[in-house]
Structures are given as structure tokens and as C-alpha cells.
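Q: C-alpha cells for this one, please.
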Amino acid sequence: MMCGLIFTDTHIQNARKNKKRTPHQAAWEQLLSSSRAGDAWQQVQWDAWRYQFNADLRAGEQGILTFQNLPLPDHLPTLFIALQAYAMLQSHPAFQPSDWLTQCRQQLDQQDAPSDIVDHLWYAVIQTAIGVITSDDTCIQYGVDTLKHTVDKSIHPEGYLPAAVKTGPESVALQRQIQSVQALILIAEMCEHIGINLWQYNNRGVSIMTAATYPLYYYFYPEKWQWNGEEWKPSDGIDEATAKRIFQTHAGFLELVRRHYTPPLKAIQMMLDDLRPIYDPFCGGFVTLSHAEAKRRMLFI
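A: Here is the predicted structure, written as C-alpha cells:
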């Protein structure tokens, strides 16, 4: 059963079963902490996750009340937060059907698909999310077609997206690569839960995993980042603190791609050890809680 676009009831039960195990224990503490999100839509997301994972009806009701009083977001990643919250809260007893989704679709229909590749990919995320929530095959197909076209035409065999990274300065280029990866992964994850496998789609040996793998090296060696938006100017790289901040802010994709590496990728695990528990509002929320694999218990004989 689909509960939150990127997770199902199986994910919830797994998180509950591993409540006292690493890394879920820290993720539970993060979710249930008394701290409040700084952004109103992110607070709705927190309340929706507490409702779904902790069966917290009061949190769900608070999330619904806040949701009803917020304007429709213009920022596409924030609109994804709103759509995910809608999907999570609609099973709550206090949830009342409204024309919110209709307004959301009308807002989307009134604008052309963005020409910038990062914005266009996030536009496809929104189309996919609406399609999944409303069972609209046309919206879902838009996301599928966008992902496949991106793999076919927009990802270099090394993994970078030229249209994303050739916009500087260096830190902006890295962030745009990761934001593109996030969008592609969200489309693939949502589609997987409705029976469409985009993780394995490839063309000329390139897939979304190629794009997801590309930035990992620069977590460890940010000074070697080569893109700055100026074709003939050598890159100065990125300082360690800036790179770490970018990866911390956009770490959610690591949890979602981890299980698709066979064998497991050591770099991913090293990064997760550094960054967990991950709360990435724009890549699904508390994704360590939903997608991490609990560490195996040691057996002593």
C-alpha cells in the first residue's frame, strides 16, 4: 500500500521493527524530537511522518490544520513536499477532501515546462507525484518519458549532466548535479511503487545510477571538482566545508540509491556513516527511517 509516494506500509513496519537498532534508533529520535522545522511546509512534512510512522493522530491533525492554511507553493521542490504530505495525511480521520489537488494541477497547467534542465526535472517530479496520487496515467507517463529522455540525451557517459553543471560557480554546479539526481531518483522511486521499473533503464550503458554515482567522488575530494560555468577557465574546486554542506543538505538520494548497487558501494556506506540520520525535506523527508537497512546483530557462539 502506497503511503507517502516514496514508501509503503512495508517501510513503516520495518522502521518500527528496528526502532532500537542502528541506524533507525537515531532516525526515530530525530523524528520524535521536540524541535520544530523552520519552514511551515517542512513542519507539515514532519507532522505527516509522525502520523504515518508513529501513528500519532494529534500530529496528523496538526499537519492537516497547517496544510489547509498555507498557500500553494510556487517552488517546485516545496510543492513536492506539499504533495507528499497530502498523500500521507489523506488517510487521517480529520482529513477533508478539497479542491487543493485541482488547484495544484491548474497551477501546473498554466505554466510551460521549464527550459532549465534542473527545473524541468523537478517539474516532471511534480507531474509524477500528481499522477501517482490521482492514478492519472498521463501525468505518470510524463515523468517516465522525462526520465528516459534524460538518460538518452542529457547524461554524459561519465555521469554528469552537462546542462546542469555548466552553470557556475563551482558550488552551484555541484548542487545542480545533485538536484538533478534527486529529481530523477524521486521519479524512479515513485514509479517503482506502482510497478514501473526505471532504475534499470539504460541507454549506451548510461542510467540514472550513472548520474547518481558521479558526484560521490567529490564528497571526498571536493577540491577536484572541475565545473565552474566557464568553459576555458580552470576550476578552483570546492572547499571542504562548502562541499560538506551541499551534501548534508541534499543527502536523501544516498538512502534511496544505496540498495541499487550490487555489490554494495563502499563510498555510499562511508557517506551514510557520516551523514545519518538523514532528513532531506526535498528528497522525501526522513529517508533513513524509511529506507535504511538495520545493521545485523552479531552472533556469539
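A few notes: The chain has one domain: 9-291. Residues 49 and 271 are 24 Å apart (CA to CA).
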